[in-house]
Amino acid sequence: MAQVLGISFTATELLLVTAIFGLVFWAIRTSTSRVPKGLKSPPGPWGWPVLGHILTLGKNPHLALTRLSQQYGDVLQIRLGSTPVVVLSGLDTIRQALVKQGDDFKGRPDLYSFSLVTNGQSIAFNPDSGPVWAARRRLAQDALKSFSIALDPASTSCYLEEHASRQAKSLADTFQKLTLESGCFDPYEHLVLSVARVIGGMCFGGNFPQNSEMVTVVTTSQDFVEGASSGNAVDFFPILRYLPNPTLKRFKDFNQKFITFLQKTVQEHYQDFDKNNVQDITSALFMHAEKESTAKGVPIPREKVINIINDIFGAGFDTITTAISWALMYLVTRPDVQRKIHKELGIHSSFAPFTIPHSTTKDTILNGFYIPKERCVFINQWQVNHDPETWGDPFEFRPERFLTDGETTLNKPLSEKVLLFGLGKRRCIGEIPAKWEMFLFLSTLLHQLEFSLTPGVEPDLTPTYGLTMKYARCPHFRAHPRSAK
């Protein structure tokens, strides 16, 4: 028995009081930071001790954070566990941060899930933002560009248009065959395999495997999407890494399968490498490593080739597949728009709710708010793409909004306000090839086919939150030649 100010406490009560005091002290300490005199921290709602705002985010963080931005503004702050997170909304604010103050916001937070991608060596997810990262990113970008555009029209090299056109035509035949044989089909798995073969052909040429291992890897990419999403609790509550966690296990398993598959494919390709016949991205990277060349004085060793290929290949099929699948779903639910497709209408779908999280590389000020170094930053692309001030009726599928001059010319200034690939120094390196590939697939498919759903079917268009958002699988698609009545 102990006495404090004449009040008796048991050992258990003392322990409980100490624990509560410790939690309160910890909550106060983690919720405040030293702000230079004359400056202020971003505003935000009150959060629970220990938990912070994780319950506020719920299953749809993009919606929750958009609602909070309406109350607290384009720069707000929440807390996930003990980690403060700045959330940026509004196109002007995001451009200010990622473009005009790009060096300040080009970092990546050191999150647990990031360490599982390519064994922590991913260009896109690695916290490094220094000269080594910049050199490897530039190398990946140049390699992707070189095999996306045929500078020599007579060239027979493996370029994007060649692969995408062939796969799109084959996919159109597959969709027709499935309709004839089964009456209807689910397009997603066939689509993801076709898109994977495009980036696989660009990366490995004829060495890209067409076996069951490849099929398993690319068709289970949803396991990666779920684990790599912004606001993943395992990144902010370390104890969850040691408790039964099916989502985390699938994420780990996928990353291991993916890196093993690519390591094997790269090694097999190296055995056939001919420096006098460079026909794909991997060969170009082998050539670079063999010459021991450098990018701004930073060597790119051969063992890093797999890491670069991982980023190029990994980013080359999920985003594109998701975009095309949403386009097809919108078109079967809006046949009137499908009938206008010959007018080259654009598709507006926000399927990437957030960019990969950023972090600040130094103390900085944004919109008058002080943001310290190494602060985790979420970029709310979904809010930008659904801002009523920009789009008027953002929830209406009205792709003609992107046209002008009698619906014959693309309204480029407006189309550039759509955020799907991020901005600034961490902008997706595959943005331009991705847009070309989406156009090639959709134009080929819609030139040959008319898509519809089984009569009476009402598809579920509710997106499932993740790094990219997808709708529920729909096995009721039908495809007929456009000439069919």
TrEMBL record:
Heme binds at C428. It is an enzyme of class 1 (oxidoreductase). Pfam families: p450 (PF00067). Pathway: Cofactor metabolism; retinol metabolism; Lipid metabolism. The chain crosses the membrane at residues 6-28. PROSITE patterns: CYTOCHROME_P450 (PS00086). It catalyses: all-trans-retinol + reduced [NADPH--hemoprotein reductase] + O2 = all-trans-retinal + oxidized [NADPH--hemoprotein reductase] + 2 H2O + H(+); 17beta-estradiol + reduced [NADPH--hemoprotein reductase] + O2 = 2-hydroxy-17beta-estradiol + oxidized [NADPH--hemoprotein reductase] + H2O + H(+); (5Z,8Z,11Z,14Z)-eicosatetraenoate + reduced [NADPH--hemoprotein reductase] + O2 = (14R,15S)-epoxy-(5Z,8Z,11Z)-eicosatrienoate + oxidized [NADPH--hemoprotein reductase] + H2O + H(+); (5Z,8Z,11Z,14Z)-eicosatetraenoate + reduced [NADPH--hemoprotein reductase] + O2 = 19-hydroxy-(5Z,8Z,11Z,14Z)-eicosatetraenoate + oxidized [NADPH--hemoprotein reductase] + H2O + H(+). Keywords: Endoplasmic reticulum, Heme, Iron, Lipid metabolism, Lyase, Membrane, Metal-binding, Microsome, Monooxygenase, Oxidoreductase, Transmembrane, Transmembrane helix. One of its GO terms (cellular component) is endoplasmic reticulum membrane. InterPro entries: Cyt_P450, Cyt_P450_CS, Cyt_P450_E_grp-I, Cyt_P450_E_grp-I_CYP1, Cyt_P450_sf. It is a peripheral membrane protein. Its cofactor is heme. Cytochromes P450 are a group of heme-thiolate monooxygenases. They oxidize a variety of structurally unrelated compounds, including steroids, fatty acids, and xenobiotics. This is Cytochrome P450 1A. It comes from Dipodomys ordii.
